[in-house]
Amino acid sequence: MKHVMLDCYGANERQLDDMKLINEVLNRLVFQFQLKPIEPPQLLPYYYGSIKEDIGISARVLLEGGHVTIHTFPIRACYFVDVFSCKDFDVDALKAFFMDEFPFNDQTSFIAIRDRQVPCFNMVPYDEKKDFGPHILLELQAKKEPTMEDFFEFLENLVGKINMDPITRATVLKSTINNPKYLSAIIIIAQSHIALHYDYKKHTIYADIFSCAPFNYSTIGDEFSELGKIVSNELVVRGSKHIDKVKSVHIAHLKRCCLYWQNMITRKK
User: Fold this and answer.
1) 16-37 pLDDT, tens digit each
2) Average model confidence (pLDDT) for the chain?
3) What is the CATH number of the domain that holds 239?
4) What is the domain count for the chain?
5) What are phi and psi of 185, to 5 degrees?
6) Could you tell me which of 29, 38, 57, 193 has the fewest CB atoms within 10 Å of its CB?
7) Count of alpha carbons within 13 Å of 176, Cβ hemisphere only?
8) 264 CB neighbour count, 10 Å cutoff
9) Which range marks the domain in which residue 260 is found?
10) Which of 177, 185, 231 shows the shortest CA–CA distance to 209?
11) What is the rounded CA–CA span in Å between residue 139 and residue 3?
12) In terms of DSSP bridges, do strands 121-123 and 228-240 run parallel, antiparallel, or are they unpaired?
């Protein structure tokens, strides 16, 4: 179970506000990396937030036992990607894919890679004044086999308990109609998401809470106790609030210009 988190800064503002392009990129990603989608891409514009800089587009695809999400922030010239899959994939190729599709400044961007099958208890320091947002990665041994209604009600109630702002209702899907391997659920909160994936064979639940706003994650185990026993609990710090957008975009532009002229000089030789 591989989980890759990309925090990309210095991106093109127009691209990050182009719903058609984001939809096409999600489709190409799933095809190129031979992931197993259980739904078509779902896109949601978010243009009514209380913080102007936080407007953008949230996009997702539920996979067999995982998900792909993209959250864009055009005014901040940044976007956040999650690819969580039970199928292995090339991380370097994934990074190169997004560099081609939505070019970003590699020097000011971040990548985190986790094997979700390896238990981890690591609550790294999170500074709400400097860091963009916390991302909790949980693994639980399920108390019982959850139903679709269980996952739906859990997500609908959880957002209120941790003071998040839902911008969709919860979506719950089985990986297949008959003999499913996984039960998956997701809810989009203000420019981030909460996701659940249940492995029917292992009786294991993988959960993610990615938020662009701080919340009391120290008690998150209490909120999930109704689903099962926590066997892994990690906090991943996402991005930074203090990357200079103008500087980041300028550096990315200079790098593209240098690459262009290098190619031109090579051709002449």
Assistant:
1) 999 999 999 999 999 999 999 9
2) 90
3) 3.60.90.10
4) 1
5) -145, 150
6) 38
7) 6
8) 10
9) 2-268
10) 185
11) 13
12) parallel
